[in-house]
Amino acid sequence: MTVLVAYGSRYGATRAIAERLGETLRAAGLDADVREATARLDARPYDAFVVGSAAYRGSWLRGPVEFVRRHADLLAERPVWLFSSGPLGHARRDDRGRDLLELTRPAEFVELRDTLAPQDLRVFYGALEPGRLRPLDRLIRRLPSGRRWLPAGDFRDWEEIDAWARGIADRLQGTADRSQGA
Question: Where is the Flavodoxin-like domain (predicted)?
Fold first, then answer.
């Protein structure tokens, strides 16, 4: 079974999540290809998909959105998992007690849930290296509330990411076993 892990990343944190997912899938015996998601990326050679993007201002980056929309019919026929990264910091709830992972689900999850019927949709915490920020983001971070909204550090939970990937591998290997009559 060949799995495409397609991602969109602005500063590299989401790319690292995608690479880790690919490594874990390969360690479980699957053929996993990790590629940047673009409208031109060909989905036809793959049996299953893990697609993710960094989320900014509540939305995925353009590349993953274009990839999924272009290949929606094909992806709807095959196993798909979706992920997003973005929340920063150690807090699990905002000032009003709301779950940050729920609050930061990208808008595309609603559309893609209905279109693709994914196996799972997951939001992971991200990472931020201030020295890599683009000028506008650097300016926002300099504002009094900017450091609160854009704290520096790596907040990714690698154990959670690995466990999610192992669950995907288990599911795909179970699907392959059933299709081969095992």
Answer: 3-169
